[in-house]
Amino acid sequence: MGFFLNQEVALVQTNQSYYNADPIARNLGIQSLIPHESEMFSCHYQLLRDGVEASGCYGTSVVLRRSSLEEVGGFVTDSITEDYYTGVKISALGYKIVYLDEKLSAGLSAEDMPSHLNQRLRWGRGTLQAFFMKSNPVKIPGLSLLQRITHVEGLLHWFSSIPRICFFMVPVVYSFIGKSLVDANQSELLYFCLPYYLTYLISYSWLNQYTRSFLLSDLYSIIHCVPLALNSIQVILNPFSQGFTVTPKGILRDKFIFNGSLAYPLIFLIFIELLSLLFLLFRLSFHSILDIATSYSYDYLGFIWIFYNISLLCIAIIVLVDVPKTGDDFCDVNQLVEVNLLDESHLATSLKGRLTSVSESQARVVIENLVIENLVSKIALHQKAGISLEFLQKNLLLYGEVIDMSYGLNTSEIQISFNRLNIDEYRKLIEFMYCQPGQWKRMYSPREWIWLLALFKNIINRLSLPNVNSSQ
What we know:
alpha+beta; Thrombin, subunit H; Spore Coat Polysaccharide Biosynthesis Protein SpsA, Chain A; single chain; 472 residues
């Protein structure tokens, strides 16, 4: 609020963070390793825009000066992304938009792939509607040249999926017609392309302040490319054909669900890539017989390119299988608690523990330095009568039952399901979960090989999973 002591400041946008994993990371099983996909936008991209006073307003985690909002006529309702264009109009009147890179709140992001992609399509439609609105940042009076350039970059970003699809077709075109779009011999590929690729691979995370890795960014773009490319074309042809749709939240599912309608375009691309790969292998095997006037280096480059495309497309198909979600999302915490095991006479056996994560209905507690067999026997003896969990620093006592246990070398983790909470208990739990100072920590992208290793391990485990439902 201190920013508003400056009368020129009309809007303060804070970091938009989420306490649940994005569905892509969740479906890949690497949500504990990589930051939420919003991190790159919130922790890096917004800071760059703030350097020219062109930070985007995205509605959540934002504070506005009421008089300034009234001066621009209220929220811009011409577009389905009213928050962004409201910020543009406020900035055009000469007011300042400040971006504060602190995680002061957290929300719930889309929880399955259809919701995730529909949300991106809505953002894309709303942003591209700028070309047909009075609040178009390209022509609205009052913005500086640097502000206009920054906003134009944000508009053009939504067309990047079209060249991404074209990049899929470059090696395919070469495989079928023998015409390479990369004019380089084998030595030039080795001395120039390979060092460039390795440099890009190594420096990508550093350049975006470790908010995203190179290969992961490519995977995200592949998953989004076909729907976003079609969406961009549709908006240009008919910009206001679809209205606002709310992203559904609180979705629960007890089975794996394959989103077939989203996967079919990627499956078609895999088929085309495989077909071109077979044709290219044929060319490599019978190069002299076919007498094609080209260099072997083009064939090998095409082979590597196609193999790379197929690998990422196959991983993208795995992403489109939504994993089960049977309960609330957990928030990571680190608090001392006391677990009381109650017998039939309501006499308690107290155990000190450490609360590692908590949701609105469950908690996970680690008990350290105990004989595991003794703990198991105690819980088995008292489980029917119940268990209580006392939050030592919050004056909160909740009752429930043990629903799961896991064992380590010198520790044991118990998962507790709370009994029905009264309104006072629920409010205290909400305050504990969401209102702690500095609670929302920033995650950093690990090195490529770390998350890739975890990904391949998860894929191997996924091969032994039971039936998967298909969703159209």
